[in-house]
Specification:
With about 300 residues, the chain is α/β, with parallel strands linked by helices. It contains eleven helices and 14 strands.
Length: about 300
């Protein structure tokens, strides 16, 4: 397949491009800087600019672009950047795909566009699947607008799947930040520890995207492991994997003091989300429980 990927330098995008290339696909990376290699093509999502020819003959776009949710403290300006970077990139590729479909309506196309389990807001202990309604906080609103930005592609008859991803477990990302604390023996549950963490291994995240390239699936898809756990259970599992104690909880007020609003919505809130659509479509997880996913993330690659 000819596959264009946005956000290809991120945690998921880097591994996805490597894997798709190894699979034998023709992968095109959309980048905002000057292209350095033949597989890179420049675009400017902030101004909705993408050369007409880049997507003219592609079979699929995997849209992962967007600034990091927790990379900076949530000022009003950064919250606007979080929203705009997602909506602008999605609108740009959706419109370009729609234009390509109009010029060549016989070519089947698919848009796999990132979203997040934050769509559901803080779900407490309620079991959530793709039929559950949207939440009402900032992250939920971002996800609603993010998913709505695919409308031009859907109107053009392109199959669109919204990848509502959970916490991706890999050597990098969040694990790179918290592993040193646990290795020093100062890791512990965050707040009460009762919030549900819908994790997924990077291996399963990438494999699920590969699966969805050809599976007859459209609409929202939870990219989460089949057994979500509470933060307390996640903490205990990580302690077992690293052979370290996990007896020093981090109070919620301390997290709020350091992280601001992000602590309440991104750390102390949670979603007990299940990957119903993936499982019903026949996807098989390599890592079915959080401990095996953590062992793979930290020890096996």
């Amino acid at each position: 397949m000819r596959i264009a990927v946005t956000g290809s330098s991120g945690l998921v995008g880097t591994e996805l491009v490597r894997t798709l290339t190894a699979d034998g696909h023709d992968v095109r990376r959309l980048v905002r800087r000057t292209p350095r290699t033949a597989d890179e093509h420049r675009w400017d999502p902030a101004h909705h600019q993408l050369d007409d020819g880049v997507l003219a003959d592609v079979d699929a776009v995997v849209n992962l672009a967007g600034v990091g949710i927790g990379d900076k403290r949530w000022t009003d300006a950064y919250k606007r950047e979080v929203l705009d970077s997602r909506v602008d990139s999605t609108t740009t590729v959706a419109a370009a795909l729609a234009q390509a479909a109009a010029a060549d309506p016989d070519r089947p196309r698919v848009l796999l566009s990132a979203s997040a389990v934050g769509y559901y807001g803080d779900g407490g202990a309620e079991v959530l699947d793709e039929r559950s309604p949207a939440g009402s906080d900032f992250l939920a609103d971002v996800c609603v607008q993010w998913e709505a930005a695919t409308a031009p592609a859907e109107a053009a008859g392109i199959r669109v799947a919204h990848l509502r991803t959970g916490l991706v477990l890999a050597r990098g990302g969040m694990m790179a930040k918290i592993r040193p604390l646990f290795q020093l023996g100062v890791g512990g549950k965050l707040g009460s520890g009762d919030q549900w963490w819908p994790w997924i291994s990077l291996r399963d995240e990438v494999d699920a995207i590969r699966f969805l390239l050809t599976a007859d699936v459209a609409g929202p898809v939870n990219l989460t492991g089949p057994e979500p756990v509470t933060n307390a259970a996640f903490t205990e599992a990580l302690g077992r994997v690293l052979h370290r104690p996990t007896v020093l909880p981090v109070p919620g007020f301390a997290l709020s003091a350091v992280l601001g609003e992000f602590a309440r919505l991104g750390v102390l809130a949670g979603q007990r989300a299940l990957p119903r659509v993936l499982m019903e479509a026949g996807f098989t997880f390599t890592h079915g429980d959080v401990e095996s996913a953590l062992r793979w993330a930290l020890d096996q690659h």
